[in-house]
Amino acid sequence: MSCVTIKYLARRLGISPSTVSRSLRNHPGISRATKEKVAALAEQCNYQPNLVAQSLQTRKTNTIGVIVPEIRHDFFSSAVSGIEQVSHEAGFTIMVSQTQETYEREVMNTRTMVSHRVGGLILSLSRETILFDHLTTAMKQGIPVVLFDRVTDEIPVSKVVVDDFEGARTAVEHLIRRGYRRIAHLAGPAYVSISRNRLAGYRRALEENRRLFDPQLVVPGGFQEKDGWAGMATLMSLPEPPDAIFAVNDPVAVGVFTWLKKAGLAIPEHMALVGFSNNPISALIDPPLTTVEQPALDLGRMAARLLLEQLKQKDPYPAVPVTKVLKTRLIVRKST
């Protein structure tokens, strides 16, 4: 970026910095001749506006930063669509980046958006994120932050989640009612909010139905197909393998599905399978996947509405952060 400043242009032209600034912004109170002189010198000197300085003066932009773990799966792409819909209606554009599930990229993306002085930030945390200094730094600079789906209680921000606990409890209870005895859970990372809540729902369903919790039947992993494949290899090596699987999300369930097909095991005759998310692929595989529907589009819309409400306020941080919890729905298909 050029080190040429408005003050430098003003000295060269013998006019005030404010006149240069207004000329560059095409202010109607500045004469055409002055605007042309300023524009010519700015181009000659390769002047680049300082976006951060401009944003610090206005204290806002019409851009909202959106940071998600990944967008190749339908859940996050649908949530981003919901954010974009609401933001567009309010006259805002969105800037989207993905962390690829790494804390390092989440920090880098956050800092980049802060440097461009986005009006606000909407995030779903990466699987590695356990520190939040990058977000508190943004908040100290007056940039409101809203979290969705994967959230934390470590920082005082508003958030939008689905009822992961109840969704998981309902899914496992469904398997119990279908007569399955050894129900395993392919869990996500223990420190991620959705992982903890879905594991808690799994355990509650067992408890309510007087089933003993067997820690061998819970295999922690990640959120991708490869984690479902790896988790199945672990579970099927047990002396007494499970007869049903509750996966932390649909991509993990698809990994399980692929492993079972390769092993020649029929679904649900040899192994029942339930996912979580209701990604479009869950209805297309054969047999179609029983899953817990979480309203990704509505999740994104609600996150955007919360952020826009904060942007309207003089103080962008409410005294008591708001938490919105959206309901899930069990969709029963032929995998159970």
Textual characterization of the structure:
This protein is of the alpha/beta class and 336 residues long. It folds into 3 domains: 6-49, no CATH class; 58-161 and 296-327, Rossmann fold (3-Layer(aba) Sandwich); 164-293, 3-Layer(aba) Sandwich (Rossmann fold), CATH 3.40.50. Helix content is 43%, strand content 16%. It has a 6-stranded parallel sheet, with helices on both faces. Strands 7-6-8-9-10-12 form a 6-stranded mixed sheet, with helices on both faces. Helix 5 runs parallel beside helix 12 and helix 8 (164-177) runs parallel beside helix 9. The protein is elongated and about 85 Å long. It starts with 5 loop residues before the first helix and ends in a 5-residue tail after the last strand.
Name its key features.
Rossmann fold, six-stranded parallel beta sheet, elongated, alpha/beta, six-stranded mixed beta sheet, 336 residues
What is the secondary structure topology, with strand pairs?
Layout: H1 6-13, H2 17-24, H3 32-44, H4 51-58, E1 63-68, H5 74-89, E2 93-98, H6 103-115, E3 120-123, H7 133-140, E4 145-148, E5 158-162, H8 164-177, E6 183-187, H9 193-208, E7 218-220, H10 225-235, E8 244-247, H11 250-263, E9 272-277, E10 290-293, H12 296-312, E11 323-326, E12 329-331
Parallel strand pairs: 1-2, 1-3, 3-4, 4-5, 5-11, 6-7, 6-8, 8-9, 9-10
Antiparallel strand pairs: 10-12
